[in-house]
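ok so heres the complex, three chains, lmk if somethin looks off
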Amino acid sequence: MALAMVVFMSVPGAMAGEVEVLHWWTSGGEAKSVAVLKDLLEKEGHTWKDFAVAGGGGDTAMTVLRSRAVAGNPPTAAQVKGPQIQQWGDEGVLADLGRVARAEKWDDIIPGVVAQVMKYKGQYVAVPVNVHRINWMWVNPAVFKKAGATIPKTWAELEEAAKKIQAAGMVPIAFGGQDWQEATVFESIVIGLGGADFYRKALMKADPAALNSPTMVKAFERFKSLKQYTDKNAPGRDWNLATAMVIKGEAGMQFMGDWAKGEFTAAGKKPGVDYLALPMPDTDKYFLFNVDSFIFFKQRSVPAGQAAEAMARLILQPKFQEVFNINKGSIPVRLGMPKKNFDAPAQMSMDDFVATAASGGLVPSMAHEMAVYPEVRGAIFDVVTNFYNSDMSAADAAKRLASEVAAAK
Amino acid sequence: MSNEGRQTGRGFAGSLQRYLPGIVLSPTILAAVVFIYGFIMWTAWISLTESGLLPRYKLAGFLQYVKLFQNDRWWVASRNLAIFGTLFIFFCVVFGLILAILLDQRIRVEGALRTIYLYPMALSFIVTGTAWRWMLNPGLGLERLVREMGFTSFTFDWLVNSKMSIYTIVIAGVWQSTGFVMALFLAGLRGIDDSIIKAAQVDGASLPKVYWRIIIPSMRPVFFSAVIIMSHIAIKSFDLVMVLTRGGPGYSSDLPATFMYTFAFTRNRLAFGAASAIIMFMAVMSIIVPYLYSELRMKRNG
Amino acid sequence: MAEKSLAVVTRTPGVVAGRIFIYTLLGIAAVYFLLPFLVMVMTSVKTMEDIRMGTLISLPREINFDAWGEAWSSACIGVNCQGIRGYFFNSVKMVIPAVLISTAFGAINGYVFSKWRFKGSELIFSLLLIGCFIPFQVILLPMALTLGALGIAQSINGLILVHVVYGLAFTTLFFRNFYVSIPDDLVRAARIDGAGFFRIFWRIILPVSAPIIVVTVIWQTTQIWNDFLFGVVFSGGDSQPVTVALNNLVNTSTGVKKYNVDMAAAIIAASPTLLVYILAGKYFLRGLTAGSIKG
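and the predicted structre for the whole thing:
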């Protein structure tokens, strides 16, 4: 690809440029969040050309991005996250954001474990926007009360509560049988059972010995044991319909990332009263994170480069961080932000983010593309979803996990 | 019926006339060479490389094909295409024919019914997919509706059943395309020469017999068109799966088209996806080409 | 079209029973075909409250058209909260030229393949037909390369080119099959009178082509209007067609969903092709009858 471009030259004085941004935040709340960035950028004189493509958690957007890169016509910035950033770096198409990063002291305001993901060969090529916590449990306390069950903190308590809810004629666990939702629950089980070190070995480094280990077999067994507490209509269900079951009191709990909060809010429910947000049983010491980020492509012109730099800078400024994340239900990726404007689950999340970063419990989510390359993630998905939806034994699943991951690498 | 060598013109105008058909076709031929066969060659080349995120052109042998044949999901997808393709074409043709014959019996509201049967063809699955997913879901749709009507033992849970999910794709696919096949057959029925049928009826043949023995066999070209168009739709079915089941539960309803897309574009295994596309294309050709050949040859002789 | 039917009109009890049977079957089929659309219409006139608390396919408690207005002009698709209106017109701008060009090529190609056959023309036709069978996912990247090289990546012109190219096989097939049924003697006589290639086309072939033009235009309009894959991959931020906007609305992954707006948008997005089928459906059938399928 012949992309002869001027790379973010340092020209004094601001020149108005255009940014074209590929993202998949299209729903009302998400779009409002992105619009904040658009406004900030336009205040500085730049223009924002929106290029939104939803579908499959960014799958469609990635297809589009790829074909645009092949055509030699990439957008200014694109919503790409996790290890994929390295793959784009390998293609030599990304811009170096070092100048903005140094001026804005990114190394001081972004947690190291996140910054590492944003850098290619030691230089920033991507900007983190927000942090989602994956291992949440959303509870309808009324259901628990009706069933005489206590809200679980450990796996044993979870099983006990589920049995009681089931006996009371309700669905214990609201579940959506799509591969990414299955993987979301599975990875939380893996870290709850095996701990952070095991998780890193298995689901970050994709170490064959860890993948085909007794711990993994046990994780598979636990995962499958949940199935009896879900209803039979779960396959294919959208996550938000599962959340609706909790909201309506048809189901007791759901395991889902913090974006589920938006559904409760939209239904007029109050945290701590109508619903509770807690870490999934056994995982309170861990914080599985999903960080959305933008990669920046090399720009052809000086104004375009300046507009891109302005965008990168604005993303990490406190103002945008606060408004965006309150809208989106996530928490700021910038450290040391004031908490007072966030709601209770978000405040708890912010505390846990800092605490787990210190204790080593802050780990990237495999299901949400933060931990492994997409080819490996896909192989894990195939085994997990096939195991969950067939009669495969847990031992076979672990064996296949190791072999399919090896084939995909 | 060839018109070759019938040119009578002389000089420049004459030779221009002679080459005009070729000249007129040339943009299309060029387009086919570049955009169909060129792209197939490109894909074949990529399938022999180790391309991941973006195309890389360094050859690496048949590694991707070996991996493909070892991939369980690929075999599920291939088997699904066989099941889906066969049932989809079969039911579209059978229902399409039945509806056409029924509509051909001097039906009062024929125009309205025809429109009702045909309209799904006008809609993309992006449009109707969500409604279909709700209807087929046992907890939201038909099963619940029928049970609430009092038939509490009614079960229709194919969408959430790994063993049956591919058949829900058939149901929705048949819904979308039957109307078109019906239109083809109806047009065929309207085009049939009355006198043959009258003669048969005079000879004492019953109506069903007339259809079975005379009319249906005479519509062989319609069957040909229908099968070609339906198989083209079956092979390309993509939205249908993506919207209805996303290949699930597990990957039980995956088709080669969705398989290829998933691996090449969302899993950064471009070469692997390309290999699956080439195998799929070859498999389709091995069925379509002989069929095309035999039908076209028969027509010329007949 | 002459009224023609094989039904026996005498009214014996057996015939009456037969009629009831036929109407019942047709009625059941009609319900099957209408159901998904009814679900969509019903959902589009519900309030979100109604949807959240009821079942998804139950009757609406009250009818409310707010979702329709929102879908058309104020729903947020990405950061632009102007509904699907703009995207709708992008589609129009793309569909009209693409349909006209591919139909024109189809007509002239079909004319050559049926009336001016030359050595190898059958083979070319077969190869073109086979081209219909490549899955479109395969051509995304090489197409992107080509469009990039031509300098029309991410533009409406690029999209038009893509749709024309991949519509050619079908339009050619339709016209060829139709023209085969026109007697060769007509063309032969005109040639003996000294008429040339284009003159015969204009004077003899085109005037009788109306039925097949209708079929082809309907087919192409439907295909191109409904296309999502090409639309999403080859469009730019300001040229996305309506199916992409609809997808952005419907397929959001981690945000709150508004099913009523989704469904209203879906119906609006489908309305042009739906109208084409309702209004021109009669001509569609006539066109098919007029010979396009006699292959």
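quick notes: Chain A touches chain B at residues 1, 56, 59, 62-63, 66, 69-70, 84, 87-88, 90-91, 177-179, 231-237, 373-375, 377-378, 382, 385-386, 388-390, 407-408 (CB under 8 Å). thats all i got rn
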